[in-house]
Design a protein that fits this description.
CATH superfamily of chain A: P-loop containing nucleotide triphosphate hydrolases
Largest interface: A-B, 34 and 26 residues
Distance between the termini of chain A: 34 Å
Largest sheet of chain B: none
Distance between the termini of chain B: 39 Å
Number of domains of chain A: 1
CATH superfamily of chain B: MetI-like
Shape of chain B: elongated
Helix content of chain A: 25-40%
CATH topology of chain B: MetI-like fold
Strand content of chain B: under 5%
Number of strands of chain A: 12
Oligomer: heterodimer
Strand order of the largest sheet of chain A: 6-7-8-3-9-10-12-11
Helix content of chain B: over 70%
CATH class of chain A: Alpha Beta
Structural class of chain B: mainly alpha
Chain lengths: ~325, ~300
Amino acid sequence: MSTLLEVKNLSTYFYTQDGVVKAVQDVSYEVAKGETIALVGESGCGKTVSALSIVRLIAEPPGKIVSGQVMFDGTDLLKLPQDDIREVRGAKISMIFQEPMTSLNPVLTIGRQLTEALELHQRMNKKEALKEAIRLLKLVGIPHGERRIKDYPHHFSGGMRQRVMMAMAISCQPQLIIADEPTTAVDVTIQAQLLQMIREITDRLGTSVILITHNLGIVARYASRVYVMYAGRIVEHGPAAAIYHNPRHPYTVGLLASVPRLDEARKMRLEPIKGQPPDLIAPPVGCAFCPRCSQADSQCQTNGHQLVEVEPGHFTACGVVCKEARYG
Amino acid sequence: MSMAEDAVRTEAVRPHHTLWGDAFIRLRRNRLAVIGGILVLLIALAAIFVPIFSPYGFAQQNLDAIREGPSWSHPFGTDELGRDVFTRLFAGARTSLMVGIFTQVIVLAIGLPIGAAAAYAGGRADNLIMRFVDVMYAFPDILLIILIRAILGGSIYMIFLAIGLVAWVSVARLVRGQILSLKQRDFATAAKAMGAPGRYIVWRHLLPNSLGPIIVLVTFGIPRAIFAEAALSYIGIGIKPPTPSWGTMIRDGYDLIFSAPHLVLFPAIALGILMLAFTFLGDGLRDALDPRLRR
């Protein structure tokens, strides 16, 4: 499979009154054509910011992409002029946002919002675009499209709205969909339906997906590879099965231990990770997870960060684990 | 067919409630707003039809019947030139309503794009525009209107323009504030992520969302413009005779307030009622369109 998107050494900072927030530091990942990868991590770890940086949707100021490259189909998106990046947004890379309740414009009809991208990017006229909108609604499982396009967002439930967002996202047959916590705001049964639908549609169209989530259950089912982020950096990445069954970084281990699993014998208690994520204005010098890590040794306070391959395709940024791997 | 599909079908055909439809229902429940609306409507209809069907022209003099009190042939009496006050009053209503509406058109035509442009551009351009607006705001309205009117001259259109050129600042302020806050909303980011250009987002997404407050401000702007015109006419630099204006009528009648009080009374009451009607309507619209007041 060929690479569609390659994010190289991306750093995005926010310049606030209190100091520089290093939201994303030296992050690299790649997505192959037709592949679904997952970015996981807790709130504030930089998952969303790194994805928004790809299509340059970081509000500037206070945000700024300070370094890195985003190679998409052979071009560096970070170097494109404003007008050209707009041609990429929605047409080649589209997004699904977390909040279906607020991501649709309340005073415009669904039809109006669905046809927007079609008219902007595909240069369709109103009639063609409306016909296409009805087809798209059917594709995402909303019946009676010809009537529904006249409805407003408040006529739709959360799950239905997320379907509409999905229809908008695929309307121009993009090569990549960035789904930023697409199912966080809907309940569990709808979650499964939506994700199944995303998978079916993207499989059929050969679309790549970056799935941003904090739900590890979702990751196991829908992503082929997983990137675990902590405090603005990628601390571990590899094939989903490897991350699941053989997590190496203590943070990943802790993350997995803190969610209930249906595929293992029932444990008495879930184990939370103790402590708080670090302040991104002044992150620890060494490994960011060091203050919360039970295995940390003296070296962890001064170095870390380097991703080392511990098994084929599986990288981890833990100094302790890497030392074991080297000597053991 | 299965029950599930039937359920979907009935759900899909239930009546549409658009945002504006909902607002209209709420407006109808507000008694004062309904009274205001009806009054505005009645005055507008009377302004159109009374001068057409009246047996007297609004400038038609009858020196045999001057300063007459109300009677069957002259319900509101006659003025010092024997003109029928009833006819003149509603011809004056035409002037007032025209002032109210046309100035607001000018206000929107200037204030909307400037406010939107300031918010969209941001930074130095925004600062420059808004400081200019602040300076305009600091002057008493009537003083500026008199000044601009002195420059523009005295035709009725120039009076619309003079009032409009002063009143646009509040719309510009409102629109800028609305756009700035709406810009942060998720749907604006979503539209941006779909590749919509900034101007397009402001025009197609953000302005329609601020239509409610704009409508309210315009509704309140109408009586203010009407009053400004009446004030100008009262001090003698507004509408030129023989075009009737309530301000002129009040001034002309003022000299005779003890001998023929009806000459002041009727236009003054009419002015009061019209302003009150628009204010009630504006209050009602604000309550109906403000999502925070929704129950």
